[in-house]
TrEMBL record:
<feature type="domain" description="HTH hxlR-type">
    <location>
        <begin position="13"/>
        <end position="110"/>
    </location>
</feature>
<keyword id="KW-0238">DNA-binding</keyword>
<dbReference type="InterPro" id="IPR002577">
    <property type="entry name" value="HTH_HxlR"/>
</dbReference>
<keyword id="KW-0805">Transcription regulation</keyword>
<dbReference type="GO" id="GO:0003677">
    <property type="term" value="F:DNA binding"/>
</dbReference>
<dbReference type="InterPro" id="IPR036388">
    <property type="entry name" value="WH-like_DNA-bd_sf"/>
</dbReference>
<keyword id="KW-0804">Transcription</keyword>
<protein>
    <submittedName>
        <fullName>Helix-turn-helix transcriptional regulator</fullName>
    </submittedName>
</protein>
<dbReference type="InterPro" id="IPR036390">
    <property type="entry name" value="WH_DNA-bd_sf"/>
</dbReference>
<dbReference type="Pfam" id="PF01638">
    <property type="entry name" value="HxlR"/>
</dbReference>
<dbReference type="InterPro" id="IPR036527">
    <property type="entry name" value="SCP2_sterol-bd_dom_sf"/>
</dbReference>
Length: 240
């Protein structure tokens, strides 16, 4: 069966033709992951845990049929990797601008929605600022106090490499970071500083003094932390 994408809107508008492929939350999340360097099926599953394997497979096939991505064997020859084509790479600024727009105009609804713990922790671990950590391995145990499952995560940093594990890897813990998920998200989004969160007792840090004092330097933060919500003042139409 031919799975090549086609315009199903009946419109000659190029924007509608693009929306036929990109106008889906799973597709946008998948593309976002690719722009962040994810290339393998298993890593997509870890980064987007609510996306079922069947939906993931279908979206990959759709993007491949649209020549936005290509599939090729990994250098090891034992796995398949998905790579962006020239067409796919040109979508980068579009997806980034959609994220910036969302932070400026839809941040409240983003913060209020039910967040997937696994997806958030995946973002958290890969945005850890390793430059603020000492040389050698640093293990941070993140404890999400308002969840009864998937509430304990080990973040292991060594140089620029950062790994995430939901099960005890047996490494000695250097820092304990404990907070309810909404407060941890607020910290990650830059709505509150580490110092203010600790003083307000919404976030708790326990560990060596040099790591606690430098927490603002190594704490994970969203790449869009500098995008501030737009003021709603004056956005209505006026006249007279």
């Amino acid at each position: 069966m031919d799975i090549r994408t086609k315009n199903t809107s009946g419109s000659l508008c190029p924007a509608m033709a693009s929306a036929d492929i990109l106008g889906d939350k799973w597709t946008l999340l998948l593309l976002r992951e690719m722009f962040l360097g994810t290339t393998r099926f298993g890593r997509f599953q870890k980064a987007i845990p609510r996306m079922s394997p069947s939906i993931l497979s279908k979206r990959l096939k759709t993007l491949e049929a649209a020549e936005i991505i290509i599939r090729r064997a990994a250098q090891s020859g034992q796995a398949t990797e998905y790579k962006l084509t020239r067409s796919g790479r040109e979508l980068g600024p579009i997806v980034e601008n959609m994220a910036i727009w969302g932070m400026r105009w839809r941040k409240r609804s983003i913060a209020a929605q039910d967040c997937d713990v696994g997806g958030f922790m995946w973002d958290f671990h890969r945005t850890l600022n390793t430059q603020g950590l000492p040389d050698g391995e640093t293990v941070i145990l993140v404890q999400i106090s308002d969840r009864t499952d998937l509430n304990t995560w080990w973040v292991m940093a060594n140089g620029d490499a950062v790994d995430l594990c939901p099960d005890d890897p047996g490494h000695q813990v250097d820092v304990y970071l404990t907070a309810p998920l909404p407060d941890l998200i607020s910290l990650w989004l830059g709505d509150v500083t580490v110092r203010d969160a600790i003083e307000a007792k919404t976030v708790f840090l326990d560990g060596p003094r040099h790591l606690i004092n430098a927490a603002q330097d190594w704490m994970a933060q969203s790449p869009l932390v500098g995008v501030r919500p737009a003021s709603k003042t004056g956005t209505g139409s006026g006249g007279g």
